[in-house]
Amino acid sequence: MSFSQLSHLECGRCGAHHDSERPQNLCTTCGSPLLARYDLAAVRAAVDPGELAGRSPDLWRYHELLPVRNRRAVTTLGEGMTPLLPMSRYGERIGLPRLLMKDEGLIPTGSFKARGAAVGVSRAAELGIERLAMPTNGNAGAAWALYGARAGLATTIVMPVDAPEITRRECTASGADLHLVDGLISDAGRIVGELVAASDGRVFDSSTLKEPYRIEGKKTMGIEIVEQLGWRMPDVILYPTGGGVGLIGIHKALNELRELGWISGPPPRLVAVQAEGCAPIVRAFERGERESRYWDGAHTVAFGINVPKPLGDFLILEALEETSGTAVTVTDGELLAELRQVAALEGAFVCPEGAAAFAAARKLRASGWIEADEQVVVLNTGAGLKYPGTVQVEAPVLPVDGHLI
Ligand SMILES: Cc1ncc(COP(=O)(O)O)c(C=O)c1O
Ligand SMILES: [Zn+2]
């Protein structure tokens, strides 16, 4: 049995097939993202899901459904198998006693971007790529820079000047070639695109969905959730959506597991959560459109979801439609208040993007879109520790001989 059962790449829009054994970016026919396809019949014949329990507690336990061909090409820092925690007290407060949090704060580099980086970097190195370049809102750049360092790959990272400061330090520590732009991730994307075009094939473009393997790492969140629930699906999954790769990835994973016969029944309703200051997916969803439009003046404290025009917008909207899901916005004020509530009631210091998803769960319960007895999973996509500015400290300073009584 091969380590990976990757068979080919398929365009997510026009369906054209592409060779998976050489570096690929977008579909050469229509310019859309490519998706990895596997020989699922071979996986079904060789693997029983129950056997997975005995494998390593990281995302590589799903190696047949990942694109890395050779076990020796795996670059890992131990990513995956994050906790799926009951949030009973907070859940009771918002009317969802069966609420769960998939906590991606407990993963190398402190955000779920480690999953995409582990798989994307491993596959890039396996295909002989030596230098990667990517635009980022911070966390992905930090993860790719650090995993790149471990794999011996050079990285060029371009991020907005106001991206979380720690991500900049992570890049610098890793020895990455880091650049800051006084603009948005879309401006960083243009700069990377120019560099790649002028590089004569020496720099590979690893932008979100412009390479096909980051999504494969992120889809493992979906596989883990159902494995942790005993190969059952929850009723609803809420995901803070920027580029939307995690949401598209979870949807893809659940389709693969269904085709394998490892799960059955209706899929979880997927919810794309965005900030009121940057909500291209919500606007497109509400208007019944198949693609989003560039969101002018994008701004939110939940920096990872500040993406004015996601490349995979049509795939996000398809995933929402196929799962009877929805798309909602929350304000920065709402998500910052929720962050405090979650920490105070559950002891979990979540990132602002995760807090946005909690705020959305509260809203959707209040509107009746989620029912009280439903099992709901909120993805906390990163550690609150990476964003120290979300909470202002108001603590009196005592003199050295001070007392509290
Ligand atoms: C913490 C965090 N949450 C969510 C997102 C959004 O992820 P995606 O681009 O997959 O929608 C990001 C992206 O930077 C992030 O850093
Ligand atoms: Zn195509």
Features:
12 helices, binds zinc ion, six-stranded mixed β-sheet, alpha/beta
Q: What does it look like?
A:
By secondary structure, the chain is α/β, with parallel strands linked by helices. It has a domain at 84-111 and 213-388: Rossmann fold (3-Layer(aba) Sandwich), CATH 3.40.50.1100. Helix content is 35%, strand content 15%. It contains 12 helices and 13 strands. The strands form 3 sheets. It has a 6-stranded mixed beta sheet with strand order 4-5-13-10-11-12, sandwiched between helices. A 4-stranded parallel beta sheet has the order 8-7-6-9, sandwiched between helices. Strands 2-1-3 form a 3-stranded antiparallel beta sheet, with no helix packed on it. A hairpin with a 5-residue loop joins strand 1 (6-11) and strand 2 (17-18). The protein is globular, with a radius of gyration of 21 Å. The mean pLDDT is 97. Bound molecules: pyridoxal-5'-phosphate and zinc ion (ZN). Zinc ion is lined by residues 11, 13-14, 16, 27, 29-30, 32.
Task: Indicate the topology.
Layout lengths: L5 E6 L5 E2 L15 E5 L1 H7 L37 E3 L1 H7 L4 E5 L9 H14 L4 E5 L3 H13 L2 E7 L4 H10 L2 E5 L3 H14 L5 E2 L8 H15 L7 E5 L4 H16 L8 E7 L4 H7 L26 H10 L3 E5 L1 H15 L5 H15 L9 E5 L25
Parallel strand pairs: 5-13, 6-7, 6-9, 7-8, 10-11, 10-13, 11-12
Antiparallel strand pairs: 1-2, 1-3, 4-5
The protein binds pyridoxal-5'-phosphate (PLP) and zinc ion.
